[in-house]
């Protein structure tokens, strides 16, 4: 592990009266109510059913990700102001995808926004509806506030080139956006358009071995545990290897779609709706990372030139 950069605590001690209408629903998502706040542990709460989490301390609040669903961050900011006597001090953006960081600029009057260094150019170029990171980091970063430690891990390119994982070790909580979802035994991503598959496989292993993790908050869906990383990794390795073997054998994308059925993983959540895009995008991912031999190369390049419409009969 590389050196950890630390933000020192802000020394303001204030009382924190908890609101009586906080739902304690450890082990579940937030249900059908997009405005539901679910208490995960003593000091960690989830808003909605995505990676929208906040950590309450005696010195301030740390908000992780945001959403524009339901009442969005304006509603949450009002709720936090009503429930607690401390401001939001830090906002953490897990990655640049707008669906995960939407509306986070509402905290800019009191909070410092933090993201991985590679997230910043994406946010600026795409004009994301979010806060602009003021502090960026390269490998690992630690925030200390009100007796809590929040550790930010970057495992390299995985689901995107700037996705981070957020660990609250004192609470046994790991916020793991878009590497697992919908409980423990599930396909974690609908496709691999912007993914580095081998990096994702390595990160899943590292996350499965991380200490002080009792609860995993996925990017979408119910709470999980560390077994979710192992389940998804097993599926992902099998999918990669089967698609790659077929590619090496010179098989067409149509053949691969028909034969890489992954039936031994049919009990995984999201299997029915995501298998086809998983196979197609894995084919595209592997296609761009290998060079066939001799005549096989020429034949494949003719059948599938650059710009070939993936998944369309040729």
What report would you give on this structure?
- The protein is an alpha/beta fold.
- The chain has two domains: 5-178, Metallo-beta-lactamase, Chain A (4-Layer Sandwich), CATH 3.60.15; 182-210 and 220-314, no CATH class.
- Helix content is 29%, strand content 19%.
- It has helices spanning 72-83, 98-101, 119-126, 197-208, 227-248, 253-259, 271-287, 294-303; strands at 5-7, 23-24, 37-39, 44-47, 53-57, 60-64, 88-92, 112-116, 135-137, 140-145, 148-153, 165-168, 173-176, 215-218.
- An eight-stranded mixed β-sheet has the order 2-3-4-5-6-7-8-9, covered by helices on one side. It has a six-stranded mixed β-sheet with strand order 1-10-11-12-13-14, with no helix packed on it.
- β8, α3 (119-126) and β9 (135-137) form a beta-alpha-beta unit.
- α4 runs antiparallel to α5 (227-248) and α5 (227-248) packs across α7 (271-287).
Q: How would you summarize the topology of this molecule?
A:
Blueprint: E1 5-7, E2 23-24, E3 37-39, E4 44-47, E5 53-57, E6 60-64, H1 72-83, E7 88-92, H2 98-101, E8 112-116, H3 119-126, E9 135-137, E10 140-145, E11 148-153, E12 165-168, E13 173-176, H4 197-208, E14 215-218, H5 227-248, H6 253-259, H7 271-287, H8 294-303
Parallel strand pairs: 1-10, 2-3, 6-7, 7-8, 8-9, 13-14
Antiparallel strand pairs: 3-4, 4-5, 5-6, 10-11, 11-12, 12-13
């Amino acid at each position: 592990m590389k050196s950890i950069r630390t933000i020192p605590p802000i020394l303001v001690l204030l009382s924190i009266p908890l609101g009586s209408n906080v739902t304690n629903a450890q082990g579940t998502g937030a249900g059908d109510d997009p405005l539901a706040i679910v208490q995960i542990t003593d000091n960690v709460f989830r808003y909605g059913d995505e990676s929208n989490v906040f950590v309450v301390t005696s010195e301030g609040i740390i908000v992780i990700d945001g959403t524009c669903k339901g009442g969005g961050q304006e509603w949450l900011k009002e709720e936090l102001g009503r429930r607690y006597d401390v401001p939001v001090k830090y906002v953490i953006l897990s990655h640049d995808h707008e669906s995960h960081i939407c509306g986070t600029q509402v905290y800019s009057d009191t909070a410092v926004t933090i993201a991985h260094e590679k997230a910043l150019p994406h946010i600026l170029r795409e004009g994301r509806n979010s806060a602009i990171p003021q502090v960026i980091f390269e490998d690992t970063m630690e925030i200390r506030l009100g007796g809590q430690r929040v550790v930010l891990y970057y495992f390299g390119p995985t689901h995107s080139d700037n996705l981070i994982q957020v660990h609250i070790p004192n609470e046994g909580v790991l916020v793991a956006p878009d590497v697992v979802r919908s409980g423990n035994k599930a396909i974690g991503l609908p496709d691999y358009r912007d993914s580095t598959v081998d990096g994702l496989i390595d990160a899943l292993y590292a996350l499965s071995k991380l200490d002080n993790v009792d609860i995993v908050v996925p990017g979408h869906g119910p709470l999980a545990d560390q077994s979710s990383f192992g389940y998804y990794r097993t599926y992902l390795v099998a999918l990669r290897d089967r698609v790659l073997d077929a590619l090496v054998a010179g098989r067409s994308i149509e053949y691969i779609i028909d034969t890489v059925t992954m039936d031994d993983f049919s009990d995984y959540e999201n299997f029915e709706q995501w298998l086809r895009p998983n196979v197609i995008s894995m084919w595209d991912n592997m296609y761009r990372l290998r060079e066939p031999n001799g005549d096989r190369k020429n034949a494949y390049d003719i059948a599938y030139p650059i710009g070939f419409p993936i998944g369309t009969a040729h």
